[in-house]
Amino acid sequence: MTAFAAACVFSGLVVLLHDGVSLRVWEKPTRMLLAFTALVAVVACRPSRKALWWGLIGGTVAGACVVGYQRVIEGIDRPGGMMNAITFGDIVLCMGLMCLAAVLDFRGRQRLWPALGVVAGLAGSLATGTRGGWVAIVFAALLFLKYGHYLRGVFAKSAAALVGVLVAGAFLVPQTGMGQRLEQGVSDVQTYFNGGSAYTNVGVRLELWKGATLLIAQHPLVPVGPVQVHEELGALVKAGTLQPFVLEAEHFHNDALQALVYGGVLGLLIWFGTLLMPFLFFLRMLRSHESAPAGLVATALAGMLLVLGYFGFGLTEVIFYSTRSAMFYALMLFVLMGLCLNAREEQA
What is the pTM of this model? Predict the structure, then answer.
């Protein structure tokens, strides 16, 4: 709550003290702070954890069906339901990874349901064609390598191994397009650094990151508004330093660079705090209860996967740019925190 409150206060001060920043900049941090009411509701009403797990399972399956229908039946190359394909793919993958943690809170054959959610999350993300989620899968793998001893039972360990098998299989099967997307990304990077066209999926990002670093060097400590950023980018384009297409982009395709450009170093630290402090909360929950029940371990791991997923998504995309994705993060975070606190109290 301290981290989100700091972000809200910082955005409010920027709006008040900077003429070039509109009041809408304050809206999203305020909504994310007010999401703490979800924690209050969970602690007060004590809902069943299974309600969340079943919601995640149903959400991933429904999401995979929607984008699968759009891609196979309607022929849409980059389906995204009713939102941006990258955002949709990242969120459904994040839900699928949290289903992996939910496996620990099920017994017997019921564990097949969260395992289905894992598969649906991966399939849904794969159908959208997004590559940013692959980084999140790597972070999730590192997390389970570190805390794999919490995966008690053969089925839980098998479910974790299933993710690796599915990802490897998706790369090897040409029909999925993952191998082709990877080759395209490597080709785009090589073309960009060899002086070829920068107007490719990856080339655009590299050019925007270059522009962001140049802007940060001009004002690393002072928050700026969108009008000033656009004018400074225009000057760099006019000087021939950047390609003209950077002026058409809405953001810099990287959360850290976005925070640095618009908020300076302090803005970056505050943004990072909304990831780091929740992660430390879940980590402390996990480490302080070595003999914790499955419910506490599952919710703590799900929270860590949520944070790591959003951090990974933000390396190649501004996942917090969309209000829907930002609110999904904040609400899910506080719900999981409330469930962790309830599970700890039940243990005591």
Answer: 0.91
